[in-house]
Amino acid sequence: MKITILLLFAAFLWLIPSNSSGQAFKNATETRLSNGLKVILLENHKSPMITFQVWYRAGSRNERVGKTGLAHLLEHMMFKGTPKVSGEEFSRTISDNGGEENAFTSHDFAAYFETLSSDRIGISLTLESDRMANLVLRQSDFQTERLVVIEERRMRTDDNPQTFLLEQLDAAAYQSQPYHWPVIGWTADIERITLEDVQNFYSSYYNPSNAFIVVVGDFKTDVLVPEIEKAFGGIPGGTATPRTVIEDPPQSGERRIEVERPAQIGSLIVGYHVPNLHDPDSYVLEVIRAILSEGKSSRFYEKLVRKGLALEATVDYSPVSQDPGLFYLMASVLPDKSMDEVEKTLYEELESLKTTPVDSEVLGKAKNQLEAAFVFDQDSIFSLGQNLAEYEVASEWQDIDKYIPSIRNVSGEDVMRVATRYFTGQNRNVGILTPTGPPEKAPPQPPGGMKEKMIRLR
Predict the structure, then answer these.
(1) Which of 56, 279, 368, 379 is most enclosed, with most CB atoms within 10 A?
(2) Which pLDDT tens digit goes with each residue over 201-230?
């Protein structure tokens, strides 16, 4: 039975329609309000629902040394209300109307969203336009939320060995780039942030020139656009922050860090500087990621997990970032197993990519896995909106149409070339976690595996 299911799934991957990749986004449109606020709209009438998302180009990369954590702390403060609507009333209004609301912050942005019945879109228009222009920042709220964030950092990072290791690795790997510091900020910086700092950050970035709206769901564009203009058009446009790209100079040699933390098992993270979607090599790196760690037939699973060296072994890479990022190899090393052997095995697999052409069947499977994941993600109106927005932050939303064609064009020669170019000892950053014994209590694990790119509210 299990073999039959696997065969059926494999057949499905090969039978994905050649035009399926662009169908969900083909009707997306863009408009500008009178104050310059960009609005990206995608009608989707599969269900009477709508997701309304406001994205600000104001993540942790927009902070400065000594004041890290501002973007995330402001995210918390955005739920404290305006003169018209209290924070409690904001959340209660969404809940009473059967909707969901939340927010998240990354290095590159902060995003706020509501998912509601499409006939309640006016609620999002009213609430989001109000807090874009009229947020009230009180000292009492600020003092409370700063303590909340410090505790959040303790639970999610300081008490989580793998997350702590990742934070330390990033700090070593990035030197010029603002990805050097964590989204949540350093504890000492959070403690020195003032209410005036938050107010200045809000005034500088939370305006139409540094924001855009994404709406996906059951609406009519010609009806909705005038309503958005009425709600947001009167907000002063503000001054746009230049969309600069900051890139570290080439490394002059391997950087290596080791940390000791209370933990059950050791961890290994290896990061290589690589380009983002502005470079065609990013699509080849996506295919390499799938070859190495996608599924139980992947190379890392076969060589590390199945052989009992690691509890898990994964690859993390995202091409949708404003600045170039890292290609991460991650392994949780089982007790009594050799960290050196796990590290050696990782490098052997990378060397194999450089010297031995990838089997055509393996390459085809990896590309089909990526396409299937891309297509399946389009079933959710929220994911459709998030995908459009992340491409808009990194480049422009229209570039999402390039993903599947670019993946399909990756060849075995491309894999060898890209692996040779980036997976070098000189370009390598290594982080090793040595466990000092079991922690007093199991730390909370971030969703989505060892590396978490976004800090989510509540």
Answers:
(1) 56
(2) 999 999 999 999 999 999 999 999 999 999
Predicted TM-score (pTM) of the model is 0.91
Residue 17 has pLDDT above 80, yes or no: no
CATH number, domain at 362? Answer: 3.30.830.10
Strand arrangement of the beta sheet that strand 428-435 belongs to? 255-261, 428-435, 266-274, 325-333, 310-316
Tokens of 339: 């960290």
Q: Which two tokens stand for residue 71?
A: 């973007």
- Write down the pLDDT at residue 444: 52
pLDDT at 442: 52
Give every CB contact of residue 155 below 8 A, 6+ residues apart in sequence.
Answer: 443, 444
Query: Do strands 455-456 and 100-105 pair parallel, antiparallel, or not at all (unpaired)?
Result: antiparallel
Q: Are residues 187 and 46 in the same domain?
A: yes
Q: Which pairs from 20-24 meet CB under 8 Å and 24+ separation?
A: 20/371, 20/375, 21/371, 21/374, 21/375, 21/401, 21/403, 21/404, 21/405, 22/401, 22/404, 23/378, 24/375, 24/378, 24/384
Cβ pair 196, 139 in contact under 8 A: no
Distance CA 98, CA 43 (A): 21
How many structural domains does the chain have? 2
pLDDT band at 47 (very low <50, low <70, confident <90, very high): very high
Within-domain flag for 59: yes
| pLDDT band for position 19 (cuts 50, 70, 90) | very low
Question: Which tokens sit at 385?
Answer: 């909106």
Whether the Cβ atoms of residue 62 and residue 183 lie closer than 8 Å to each other: no
What residues have CB less than 8 Å from 66, skipping those under 6 apart?
A: 189, 192
φ, ψ (nearest 5 deg) of residue 60: -70, -20
In terms of domains, do 403 and 260 share one?
yes
- Does residue 102 belong to any structural domain of this protein? yes
Residue 23: predicted pLDDT: 72
**Quick one: pLDDT at residue 80?**
97
